[in-house]
Structure formats: structure tokens, C-alpha cells
Design goal:
With about 280 residues, the protein is an all-beta fold. It is built from no helices and 19 strands. The protein has a 17-stranded mixed sheet that branches. It has a two-stranded antiparallel ribbon with strand order 13-14.
């Protein structure tokens, strides 16, 4: 794959202390939560469980969504990103396609054998010990599971993420764009935790600052024509996380869109899954 150059998101407010309300930020491809400990401290693991969503597809329009947990990637000088998750995509025929994958940037993603179907409960984790990253995914509904340990030369454990993403497509080194986000409805996360030192905590109860990310993108609504003097309208596509529960690490990410006539300012794009169009 072609590595995406990380960029900072636009933050609203000041860094939040442990247990305080998350800082808000906007991205063109990530929605969910990021936890960052103090500089120099390294996270050991991240995990969560979610329900695989059922995407709404429209013939003639491809769209994509990836749901994952990961370590690293949330900085301008990120050395890597260790992530594992599922996809819920739509091909141009209007067919929904579901899959599972693992990716350790800057390497390309690898498909996993575990199936993920709408309504099934998926649990995933990433654990780093030394130079080894162990990534596991289990379908709690079917009982299928996979687990692999990989020696990684460029590990990043400076952040933990629980994310719904619009995957990226790359054309050249450090030149990528977010693909159209699929209408996934709502993704429900539970047991979203990370481990720092010897303590495992939920998103809002750990010794780290927390950022809540809203995804903002656009898609064209082909209802007009520049030749007729009526430009096509745009839909503002948004994926919004709810507040998270300090008690059990539960939150949701909800898809929505609304029509608008003016091209909005493009939100920053973060590194992440580059699965590309489904077959």
C-alpha cells in the first residue's frame, strides 16, 4: 500500500484531564475515540467489541466503511499503526460485502478468514510486547477466531483508537484520499478499553487525554447539471460518536447526511485502513 502522511485534526477546546469530557475534533476519514497518554508513555493494548452493521447500498455507487481498534497513527510523525477490524462495503451493483482484515502500516492490509455478518458480535484486540504485535479477532456469534503475532520494525504505541473509518485509496506515495463512506446506520461499541502500564481502563477512565472524532465528508447528489446552470448538490456525510460510558466503555457511532449547496472546507485525513474497492 501507499502510506498516507498523517495530519493533525482541528481540536475544539483544551486537552481533557483523566475522567473529563473528551476534546472534540473533526476528520475526513475517522469517527470514534482516540486516547493519548503523556509524552513518552506507551500503551500496551487496546480492545473492544462491536456489532457488525448492515450497510444500505445503492446500485451505481460504491461506498466503504471499516470498523477497527488500533494502536498508534494519531500524530504527524507516527512511525506506524497496528490495527485489526471488519469492513462493511457496497459495490457498484448495490451488493453489500462484509470482510475482516489486519493491517500494520506501512505494510498492506491482509484479509482474515473469519466471517463477519450483519448483527454478529465481533471482538478485537491489539497487544504490543517489545517488538511483537499480537492482533486477534473473534466472531462471538459464530465462534470463529484468528490470532497472529508479528515482529514489527516500526511500532507506534503513543495512542489507542476505537474507530469507524472511510477507508483510503492511494495513488502515489503520500497521496491518498478518503473513499465514499457507506451508510452503516449505527455501530455499537462495548468494552472499549486500553492498557497503560499495569492498568486496563475504559476510554474515559484511563490515565490519558481523550479525543472524540467526528467524520465529515461529502458525496455528490446527481440532481443538477452545470450545462443547465444547475450544479449538482452535495450531501454532507457525517459519522458522529456518542458520549462514552466510563463504566463499561460503551458508545455508538451514527451515520447521517444532509443536502447542502456549498462545498464545505475539507477536514483533515488521518492514516488508516487502505483496503480499497471490494472485489
Amino acid at each position: 500500500m501507499k502510506r498516507l502522511t498523517p495530519v493533525l485534526v482541528v481540536l475544539v477546546g483544551l486537552a481533557a484531564p483523566t475522567g473529563a469530557q473528551a476534546v472534540s475534533a473533526v476528520s475526513s476519514n475517522w469517527a470514534g475515540y482516540v486516547a493519548r497518554p503523556a509524552a513518552g508513555r506507551k500503551l500496551r493494548s487496546v480492545s473492544s467489541t462491536w456489532v457488525e452493521p448492515a450497510v444500505t447500498c445503492t446500485a451505481g455507487h460504491s461506498s466503504y466503511s471499516a470498523i477497527w481498534v488500533g494502536l498508534g497513527g494519531y500524530s504527524e510523525n507516527a512511525a506506524g499503526l497496528e490495527q485489526i477490524g471488519t469492513d462493511a462495503d457496497c459495490n457498484r451493483s448495490g451488493q453489500a460485502i462484509y470482510s475482516t482484515w489486519v493491517e500494520l502500516l506501512p505494510n498492506a492490509p491482509t484479509a482474515l478468514s473469519v466471517k463477519a455478518r450483519p448483527g454478529e458480535r465481533i471482538t478485537a484486540s491489539v497487544t504490543v510486547i517489545g517488538r511483537d504485535a499480537t492482533l486477534g479477532l473473534r466472531n462471538l456469534t459464530s465462534g470463529e477466531r484468528t490470532r497472529r503475532t508479528v515482529r514489527v520494525s516500526a511500532l507506534d504505541t503513543s495512542s489507542a483508537e476505537w474507530i469507524v473509518e472511510a477507508p483510503s485509496e492511494c495513488f502515489a506515495e503520500n497521496h491518498c484520499r478518503a473513499l465514499p463512506l457507506a451508510d452503516f446506520g449505527t455501530v455499537a461499541f462495548t468494552s472499549a478499553t486500553a492498557t497503560l502500564g499495569a492498568r486496563t481502563a475504559t476510554i474515559d477512565s484511563g490515565a490519558w487525554s481523550t479525543t472524540s472524532l467526528e467524520l465529515q465528508g461529502t458525496r455528490a447528489i446527481f440532481a443538477g447539471s452545470f450545462a443547465q446552470g444547475v450544479p449538482p448538490a452535495l450531501a454532507l456525510v457525517v459519522a458522529t460518536p456518542s458520549a462514552s460510558s466510563a463504566a463499561d466503555g460503551a458508545f455508538t457511532v451514527a451515520y447521517s447526511e444532509r443536502r447542502r449547496e456549498i462545498q464545505p472546507r475539507e477536514a483533515p485525513t488521518l492514516p488508516g485502513f487502505t483496503g480499497g474497492p471490494p472485489a
